[in-house]
Amino acid sequence: MAKYEIIGGTPLEGSVTISGAKNAAVAILPAALLVEGVCRVENVPDISDVRILLEILRDMGVRIQEEGPGVLRLDATHITNRCPNPELVRKMRASYYLMGALLSRFHQADVALPGGCNFASRPIDQHVKGFAALGADVEETDDYVYLREGPDGLHGSRITLDVVSVGATINIIMAACLLPGQTIIYNAAREPHIVDLANFLNTMGARISGAGTEVVKIWGVERLRGGSYAIIPDQIEAGTYLAAVAAVGGNVLVQNVIPKHMDCITSKLQEMGVSIINYDDAIRIRSTGKLHHTTVKTRPYPGFPTDMQAQICVCMTLASGISRLTENVYETRFFGYCTELQSMGANILITGKTATVTGTKQLKGATVCAHDLRAGAALIIAGLAAQGTTVVENIHFVERGYERLVEKLTALGANIRRIDD
Ligand code: UD1
Fold it and tell me: Which of 94, 141, 198, 414 suits 293 as a labelling partner, its CA being 20 to 30 A distant?
């Protein structure tokens, strides 16, 4: 198993360019199944989750050409196999979007239950509730979901989500795209990648409004044709570099970002004493590495993202005083990394869904294990800030979501290398 070896303590200096958003890419690529024509997609991140998805789509008969770095042409006009390879589907979370896309285009879907980061129980009952409301007969087994057109046919519908779910919002948007009539999703999630997916589909000819608000409306169209689209920058990748500079210290220009998407993260870093300057599509961050304590509560967008919980926790471990971090989306998420941080000298007490973090002057290097993607990112930040050498094991999790991480950090002056066993 590959691992990262990090020698900590060097401030980060220079500039880093953020890649296309993972969570938008893993929705937009399956959405290409809805399109009869060529979708040209720019800013596709080269990460393992995307590579798996492309393998699934190729296996189904989608013609995929690489026009240049990060630019793909996908043509799903002639699908030869409507059953996505279950072994590949189980390797990632967002493969559940194949359900909505196949249901909409072919009125049936047989898709294995997804895998991916296992930091909590991650039900898909809201996705299923949406498919059923759209007229699908749903059969779930231990490892598969089978969707068929119900006796009254598939049609637009009104759906109120019981919980604000990114995945269910996106899956229902996709499923409704080619169905007759209007669909309205109430209590929809508002994350930037939902807006990105809707913009992509609208570019291809869909009729979706309200994405980015709590009420999304979809008017079904007969077919989607090709077009060209560029994926937004990755909010969480950008946040991870910002948290790294905050914790380690330094002066970095983070390029190719949408600063408005970053407000929920940058405002917390400012509270912790970091200097932030927003430009049109970049953020400059300066940090002395001396941070103040703060309070963070994760929430769906525009709140503080749960996907930044672990990274901000590392900043808290190095801040003066006592910080409080409350997880409101995935309560068991602390267990993926807090024990590892404690082995590096962090002082964290978990009570229910709140971590109380008492800052320490210095973390020390250790051998630690990534248990999921963002937990792994946090351990890397801790290693960059720590005294001595840190080895982060299980880095396949990190490589699901961070493009050219070692290269980007090395360019900022970090001492990190990937070791292949
Ligand atoms: C997406 C992100 C993930 C992020 C999460 C929350 C992708 C590919 N992944 O995951 O990185 O951590 O949003 O921002 O975009 N829930 C249910 N029933 C459902 C669906 C969700 O109870 O059918 C609950 C979940 O257990 C969780 C909450 O709703 O407590 C939010 O989950 P959701 O937004 O659906 O997360 P994902 O879309 O899986």
Answer: 414
- Between 125-133 and 97-106, two packed helices, what is the crossing angle to 10 degrees? 10
pLDDT (tens digit, 9 = 90+) per residue, 134-168?
A: 999 999 998 999 999 999 999 999 999 999 999 99
User: Could you tell me the distance, in angstroms and rounded to a whole number, from the CA of residue 201 to the centre of ligand 1?
Assistant: 21
Is the torsion defined by CA of 180, 104, 24, 372 positive or negative?
positive
Ligand 1 centre to CA of 167 (Å) is 6
Decide: 163 in ligand 1 pocket, CB within 6 A: yes
Measured from the CB, is residue 23 less than 6 Å from ligand 1?
A: yes
Strand partners, 154: none
Tens of pLDDT, residues 106-129 = 999 999 998 766 666 788 999 999
83 is catalytic: no
